[in-house]
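Handoff note, outgoing to incoming analyst
You'll be picking up this chain. Sequence as last confirmed:
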Amino acid sequence: MADTSITRSILLWTPAILLVAYYPLLLIYRLFFSPMSKIPGPWITRISDVPEANALKDKRRAEWANELFAQYPDSVAVRTRPNAVSFNHPDAVKAIYGHGKGAEEFGKSGWYDAFSTTGESLFSTRSKKNHARKRRMVSHGFSMQSLYSFEPYVDAVMQIFIQKMDEFASTGQPFDIYFWFELFTMDLMGELAFGRNFGALQGGQPVKYSKLVELSQRFANLSGLLPFGKYNVKVLSWVPVPYIQQLYQARLEYLDYARQALEGRFQDNRNQAPLGGKPRQDIMQRFIEAQDPETGERMEFPELRAEASSLMVAGASTGSVTMNWMTYYLQKNPSVRQRIISQLEEMFPNNLDAATPLPFSSLNKLSLLEATEIECLRMHPPIGYSMPRMTPAQGAIICGVYVPGNVDVGVPALTIGRNPTVYRDPNTWNPDRWFDEKADLATMKTCFLGFGFGSRQCIGRNVANQFVIKMIATLLLRYDIQLEDPNLVLGTKEFTILKPDRSYNVILRPRKHAG
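Most recent structure output, in case you need it:
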């Protein structure tokens, strides 16, 4: 009987003993025996996600990754989490994000599941097959021909923006131009995604969705740090922390906002049909009409809603911040600014006051203006941290570093964009570097991750490039722009998107032309 009692006690206590022993043993394994234990990084990142989560909460995640590489300057890789490694080398970009047989083995990590809402979008889908299907369906909608069909909508919103700028120019009153860039992109994405202007420019204040977007994206980023895959969002939504609950409620409100806006768009299309009207030929119409050329499938409403939600985030936030940096750096570098203005005056001798938005068909020939945009995106990519991919089950050797299977790996755009072995004087803004025949331009372009890399790079790159170039060219030709504080030095702060770390003002005056 005694033996039986002892046996029962052992059976009862064994699970508890194993549970108590499990975590210390796991920590010891991660610290000293894991295949990744030799990859440099603070000891705490080998055992905990907390440092990265704190950096995200403090709005400095990309800068935190930069600091890790600065601590280990001789290493091409650093450990950012127990199951995540970041790289800072051109070969890592090609290995992780590139085309080819090897690249096919690196799938999107579970981090992306948190960005799937009512369905998978081009951005969030982890399935290569599903991504290829979606890209087949909508790629023609982002062709140059389609781009020109969107231009009237871009011009209409730009006209409202110019009217507002004229008011500031007539008084010489200092104002926050980045704030107005954000209003412009809000209204423009409303036009292109939902077929209606939100009235942000006219009202002179942000619409509700802009704040909801920022908060819901922060919730998705925190969700992506959890280890529960597609259940990350649900698990985090149960956490009874006020800050997290605020983010989750913002996500729900934003998704409902997108639903109502998209339903309104479908209603507009139905109202046009009885009158023989043709639906608006904007980006969302391309998604609505898109058919898989192989199967004839169309996107259902939940999938369209997910694409619309993704489009609003990608277009509005990234476009406004890029125009901000271009304005800032061109004022800091008057010689570059004047060269662009001279090219514009030569190209548009009959439109020197830029009373109407300039046509993109001409502007896309100005290589210096495009290099200005690219250089800003190199130094200030909208998404600065790693876009994670997952190593294949058998593991992978990246830049000579072995990484086990099912580990998140990536290259932070902010870090590689300032890698001194790739870019000479990487912290100096110099658009002419993109024309330097002595530089390794191929490697520089490989390491430029402002729009991503490979088959998963941003499909809307041409759309963003169009309205950004049109806006900056029109402003340069129409106004003399000055920083209110000529000694201003802008830094960045991370709100998912890397934004300026402070507000600043410019002063506009109508340009005076010779003759």
